[in-house]
Write a structure and sequence with these properties.
2 domains, 13 helices, Aspartate Aminotransferase, domain 2, Aspartate Aminotransferase, domain 1, seven-stranded mixed β-sheet, alpha/beta, single chain, three-stranded antiparallel β-sheet
Length: 402
Amino acid sequence: MLPYGRQSINEDDIAAVVAVLRGDFLTQGPVVEDFERRFAARVGARHAVAVSSATAALHLALRVAGVGRGDRVVTSPLTFLASANCAAYVGAKPDFSDIDPRSGTLDPVALEQDWQPDTRAVVAVDYAGQACDMPEIARIAHERGAVVIEDACHAVGGSFHAGPPGSTAVPIGGHPWADLTVFSFHPVKTMTTGEGGMLVTDRAAWAARARLLRSHGIVRDPAGFVTPDDDEVLGEKGPWFYEMQDLGWNYRLTDLQCALGLSQLGRLDGFLARRRQIVAAYNAAFAGCDWLVTPRLRDERDAATISWHLYTVQLDFAALGRTRTEVMAELRAAGVGTQVLYVPVHLQPWYRRTFGYGPGKCPAAESFYQRALSLPLHPAMTDGDVGHVITCVKATAQACVA
């Protein structure tokens, strides 16, 4: 069975993890800092904070930016739940603006039209690896005093063109339009640490606060203590002493995971190149199919720089005379796993019940969802695997219309 996504682990990855197992630190050791430093350099950011998941990174991003009760956070409905849930975690109101139906990314026009005075942050999601129109989203948000968080969980290693023709691509995570950027290292993503995420920013104070909050809000450096030296109970501050200076969480990433991340980071260019080859093969094979729309680009110049986490097509199930469930079952029987990404977040029961959202709020995202199907895309796929997917998809469609 070819799944829609999966990790690629080789002997170098395994050796990197084993080396940590034979060392002195399994967590909170030097490999974490090394991974943060090298990842920051890769994406062109000044600071990187490794955490236990991208969900944790999103939570911390809003927390360090000071977003909370009474604030509104706008994101895309075409995303995983965490892009919106992070607002609820800090007591803010999650809200949604519609997508650009071409790219599946947050539509700046809809964002500006929907803007409310209490909007304090925008979480812009790079769907399937394509970057949002970050310069325009940043203009809209920053002119109104809001923070921009780029949810680049699908876009590790990607970049995009934001300037005039002839300009160079800008790495996602290192451009000036997002105040904070979040990445995911889940196994189906471009590279993996098993579970894990990264928060990057150019603001030193925000990075320092994120590091504090990821580890229970605890300070161990005597230079940072605030307890008076003459405190009658705690006065002596020996090598055992620590202070909890804020209410934090255990959002740490282990040295084991960071060792895997470092090894995977060294393989990232190869992962990206293979993903782009597979996408090119799919696009060429499906170009003449009137019942299938291949992924479309926000900017054609980005074709060579998108990280391509997903290959999501739009299928005309009515024309095929099959439900999506039937098509997925037929492909699965042929050894091709598919997935639907995503159920629009604003239509989830908790969001309907809590905020009164419902159908019609984001019609472009709702229409996208009704026709979406993600095909297998991961670097371990051989040319034979890719050809098998193409053959099976075409055969299923031909059987449907016959």
